[in-house]
Amino acid sequence: MLRPDYPLETDRLLLRPFREDDLDALHDIERRPEVTRFLYWGPRTLEEVREALGRRTAMTSIAKEGDAIRLAADLRATGALVGDVNLQWHSEEHRQGEIGFVVHPDHQGRGYAVESARVMLALGFDELGLHRIVGRADGRNTASETVMQRLGMRREAHLVENEFVKGEWTDEVIYALLDREWEQLRSRPGARPS
Length: 194
Description:
eight-stranded mixed sheet
């Protein structure tokens, strides 16, 4: 069972469970075509965000395979919601998980995705005892690839036209990190894996 003591803090962010009062800020992120361009869904209406938020408010712990934690990322300095980050437990037998992240366009390019995703890696490896964590992205999403590279993840695959999404064939890239690689990253001088 993984039930973190919230909020989780980084130098600049507070990671916390979503709340009902996040509706307008979350809608401001998810209504944007530039945010959803490489996701499985398109820009969301306020009602669609309300439904998604209802699901997210319950995603605060991991008890079994298939469960996920999905957290709001707030700026510590202002309390502004700048995005969200998640960790899903895919396989108990193979000790596998997956991370994901979304950042508001006004806050991209400042390292918030890397900063918050490191916390998810720490939860997955150090708390849940995972052996391998992956990150997946549309093959055109170079910004997400850069985040995964900065996390120390290695590119394992480029799947060509493997999914039909929003009326077009899309490529997918897969990055991964093993528990022993995580330990090496943590042991580097000046490393800040969590």
